[in-house]
Design goal:
alpha+beta, Type Iii Antifreeze Protein Isoform Hplc 12, 2 domains, 12 strands, six-stranded antiparallel sheet
Length: 264
Amino acid sequence: MNNRNSILAVVAGILFGGLAFFLLYQKTYEIEQKTTPVGILVASHYISSGSQLKADMVEKKEVPESFVSPSAIHDIREVDGLMTLVPISAGEQILSNKFGASEESLAFALNPGYRAYTIEVNETSGVGNLIRPGNHVDIITKTESNKRDITSFVFQNVQVLAVGQKLDWGKQPKANPGTNSTQGNDLNNEYSTITLAVTPEQSEILMFLEGHPLRLVLRAPNDNEIISIPPQGESEVMAKLGRFAPRTQERNIEIIHGNSKSGE
């Protein structure tokens, strides 16, 4: 009887010892997991709201797992194409729930170093309301120099960012609530302003020329050539009247006599 009790006591001791060891091991494992460093992205400096995340805005940092937010991102590609909905402080974890889809915004259409500059146009100066976002234009003006009226090119090959309030002509305009019509002049594609991508220096020149007539000249796609054209005054223009460029290709002329045709 005593031997049996001793055996039961030993077996119970082994079982309780094994259970205690298992619980201790599990607890140790959980502690190790919580203190294991995890690589996440944190802001390298202050990031304002409405920004698209770029590589120079973040840095990789090892943080104990217990301090890592479930929304923390490990790769910048996880928020590619999204913008910050709220500001992010320097050193703060980059969390996916602080990003959202970037709404149509003029700022995102600009390349670094360029500014958006809007000029007023009418149907004539705006190429008959046929300019579209993404086109490139030249700008010419008529000014006075040494008491002479002259025309000259201001800039060439300038990118059009927007016409009116349209950034993408392929998108359909929104309809006014309770009506079947679209907003503004979208039905006939009219616009009274055009927004251009210019450098800061170009924006100063355009500002100086406000009050002078500015006219846009539409360029062909993929035509990036910049040509040198001197300003034209009255004498230069008058000297060119009646002069025409030679034909680039001769065409046959048909002369019809009754029912017969002949070529020249």
